Amino acid sequence: MRITQSMLSRMNMQQLTLQRGRLARTQEQASTGRRLNRPSDDPVDFRSALRLKDAMSQTDRYLRSVDLSRTRLRASEEAMADAMDVVGEAQALAVQARNSTNGPDARAALRSQVEQYFDQLLDASNAKAPGGGYVFAGVTSDSPAFVQTGSFVSGSPPPTVAFAGDDRPIEVEIDEGVTIEVTRSGQDVFQGSVDVFEVLGRLWQGLDQNDPTLIDSALGDLDVAFQQVNLERSQIGGAEAKADSFERRLAGERDELISQVSLLEDADAYQVYSDLAIQEAALQASLEVTARMQQPTLLDFL
Amino acid sequence: MAGLFDTLGTATSGLRTVQSGIATTGHNIANADTPGYTRQRSVVEASLPQMTGAGAIGTGVEQISVERILDRFVGERLVRETSRQATLDTQAAIYRQLESVVTSQEGEGLAGDLTSFFDALDDLSNAISPGQEAERTQLLAAGQSLVDSIHRYDTQLRDLQRGADRGISGLLAEVNAISAEIASLNQKIAAAEVTSPANDLRDQREQLVLALAEKVDIALVTDNQGMLSVRISGGLPLVDKDIAARLDAVVDPANPNPFDPSFSQVFYTGAGTSFDATSLLRGGELGGLIEARDTIIGGAIRELDAFAYTVAESFNAVHRGGLGIVDGAAHDFFADLSGQASVDDAARNFALSADVDPAQGGSLGNIAAGAVANPVTGGPEAALGDTAWVEQLKDLRTGNVANYLAGDVPGTPTGTSTTMVNALGRFIGDIGQGARSAERSLAQQDSVLAAVRNRRDEISGVSIDEEVAELVKLQASFQANAKVLSTISTMLDDLFAAL
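Predict the joint structure of the above. Result:
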């Protein structure tokens, strides 16, 4: 084989270009810390990473949903706790009203106390979530869930309260295909088997008319009302427990996704640095060889 | 029997031949680094002997010619591989730019925008405040980002395509200049070779042929006068002896480019005809650029179109099933593109619908978050707190949707249904796959071309060692011939002295 000067310089240049190219690629991996810097680095892995990153973002959103649903659950729970307080106090008042002989003044005082309980109950039933709408109004959360008709006037029937909202609970998705109810139906809570407003009204009417039978029946129904609100409140507790358990699962899922994405995208640091060292040495050797291109020819010996 | 004077002639012929040998060697050394130079060799043979009674007596040496040392097949391979390398080099460069369009953007580019859009939907479904004004605004903004991103991709791809189109016009001027030069060299060579081979003119012509091969794939035919005819793929003569044809960039209104009517076609003008030869041109930078413009970049634009159409159509289809808080009518979220003849240009026409975009006179309230008509007022619109339909919209994130492919007709998607993220992944992945294989083919072709060039240099390149050795040999030969001359001279002196 004839070897000519142009062949030698071409082969050297070709080697240098090749090694510089390889080194540039490794340096890019070292400086970005990523194995996938563009789709062509590994088209299949790039597509998988795209999908996994979207799933990661979605898991983040589910975690946010869990957080937000807690706010709403807490708002409902607090309102129901308030309602139970009111019902409990009304029970105590009813017992007191029945057990002692009350004069007209004392009865009037108890009556106005019941009126206050009634207002407090209405407030609780029309509670709002922080930054949001009426928690017991369902989808029509922009308008109050319960509307009062009439007022307390001695000698007249007590006012009535009607449900003005939508009685379907609102559901929030906290994982793919998994939802929790973040509100309870206002109707079930306050006007389920007994209408709590009506019971309080009946107690007021018993006091107004000094009718122990009415007070007795109201006392009995207050107990049912207490159980009714308590049952709904425990459902909230159940939803919260579900939210907690999914939060743990989602956090685990997210960690898993992060490590999967990292596995696809991130460069193996040890591999990269050892490649870097090897390729730098190889380049240096090539450069030295090229520098010696000024090799002797026959001329040097004549 | 030959006389002393005849032998004097023999020695002189030796000196003359040695001198021209040194000239050839000197020429080789001088051109050792000239690109495309083919080493030359002086061809000599013994001159006709003188016939005597004692037999044939030599009369010296004669130079027949100076010839180039080359292998025609290696030359032809070099032309072919040069063309191929230029095509792959052009395409790899185009793919690198295509890749930068889909990766160099802030954040995660289009994929990030798609993710943000669905994240905004999540926020809407979690909204607490009745009417969800903030969340609706945010969703619209995320939709707008998606629209802007697709438009940016589309614009950048089309800019790239326009660059390729300009490149085609620029290349044609170079091709025409080279063909004209080859035609004129053909003439000179034919004139010069009446007497002897025009070695250096032929070297020049071979360099021009290689330069032409870089631009476009060619085939070569040499006639017996030494004229070279160059044909482009399909057999069209680009140079026929001393006549060069022309290739011109022409905007043909009768046959406009489907991407942009201002793009040029390549017209061939020669042998009394002129016609559109775009589809006949293959190989070289020109073939590479034409393929890049119409197939590679064009294909990416069409895939983006298909993706944009898939997003608009599948999202709208679900969106129309929900209810806004303004009226009970069905509304689009993205502009309805189903009236197009095909999904082509969907990326360019992709936009928010006028129904939901306040900037176009629409209302945020038309975003269909609600599932049922207001249960309390009995009105046809959804209640303010109703976000149940958003769950249906959110399902589009992981659910399969009707998948449109490039060139599909609205209403009849031909792709296997897939998720939007996967459809986007296919668009980006195809570019990545193309870039990867273009880069690999180029690397392979680079080494093939280097091997062919080395093979050419092995045969035709100048080796300094060889030339210097030749020089030493010729010098000795010169001295020997001179010795013969001086010997005869002494003999003649002796003869003259004896007289």
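Chain A has a mean pLDDT of 89.
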